[in-house]
Amino acid sequence: MSLVCKEGLDLLPREQCQVSTLDDPIIRCKNCGGIITRPSCQIQMDNAFSHAFANPHGHVFVIGCFEDAPGCVAASPPSSEFSWFKGYDWNVGVCNGCDIHLGWIFRSDQDKFFGLILDKLIIP
Predict the structure, then answer these.
(1) 61 forms bridges with which residues in the sheet?
(2) Which of 16, 28, 35, 54 lies at a CB distance of 3.0 to 4.6 Å from 12, suitable for a disulfide?
(3) Whose CA is closest to 4, among 18, 24, 23, 21?
(4) Rounded to the nearest 10 degrees, how much is the dihedral formed by the CA atoms of 104, 107, 111, 115?
(5) Spatial contact of 80 and 94, defined as CB atoms under 8 Å apart
(6) Quick one: what percent of the chain has pLDDT higher than 90?
(7) CB–CB of 5/16 below 8 Å?
(8) What sign does the dihedral 50-55-61-67 (CA atoms) show?
(9) Which range is least confidently modeled, 8-12, 33-37, 75-79?
(10) Share of the chain above pLDDT 70, in %
């Protein structure tokens, strides 16, 4: 068993750490080390886990799709403009620990998933 600190890579008092086992891997924010999600939350949207998209300004993002990402929170109002997934509105998603842009939260009437920028994550 190992201790994984929620707040970052620095050592924290034990009561501020979450217990994790080696068979329970986590995906962390590359900027602060905060817990974002788990590999078991990976899903396929439009028949693929990862997608490369360009925003209206020409910036290209490679994202992975996750059914849940508790460490990623909405940081914008929902929008349906330029959605990369038909039928889904999106919010900008940021790290709950350091507020760095991690990707987008996509929502439809029946579904929600996270499109996270893969090079902003530490994936085991």
Answers:
(1) 53
(2) 16
(3) 18
(4) -10
(5) no
(6) 79
(7) yes
(8) negative
(9) 8-12
(10) 81
